[in-house]
Amino acid sequence: QGTGWSLDRLRRVEQYRAAIDEPRNAMVGPGVEAVYALIDGGQVVYVGRTSHLSQRLKAHRRNGNTFDEWETYPCESRKHARDLEAVLIQQHRPPRNRRIETRVVA
Fold first, then answer.
1. What angle do CA 26, 66, 25 make, to 5 degrees?
2. Which of 2, 40, 86, 101 would you call most buried, defined as having the most Cβ atoms within 10 angstroms of its Cβ?
3. What is the mean pLDDT of each run of 10 residues along the chain (106 residues)?
4. Which residues contact 84 (CB under 8 A, 6 or more apart)?
5. What is the pLDDT of residues 20-41, one digit of tens each?
6. Is the separation of the CB atoms in 79 and 88 below 8 Å?
7. pTM for the full model?
8. Contacts of 47 (CB under 8 A, 6+ apart)
């Protein structure tokens, strides 16, 4: 029994999973699509995407969201960011994400 996934789709999923293994804790410049994970006490507590990372991190702090560190995953496009965000949410099930993405990477 096959998975029903095409080889191209499997390759894209593997690319997203490879990106998960290579986070960068550097700030990315405005306009760069990125997925980020907020970490508190060693646990991923929130996953989001943005094209203005520094503004988004400041907004989290202003809203009272505590975190010790963050991981950044720069993305090639908005679609790549959406798909990677969904994979990370499915993988970590962060407690501060209001809705859990169930969309399968196409």
1. 10
2. 86
3. 52 58 62 91 94 92 92 89 91 84 50
4. 16, 19, 20, 35, 49, 73, 75
5. 555 555 567 778 899 999 999 9
6. no
7. 0.72
8. 35, 36, 37, 38, 85, 88, 89, 92, 94, 97
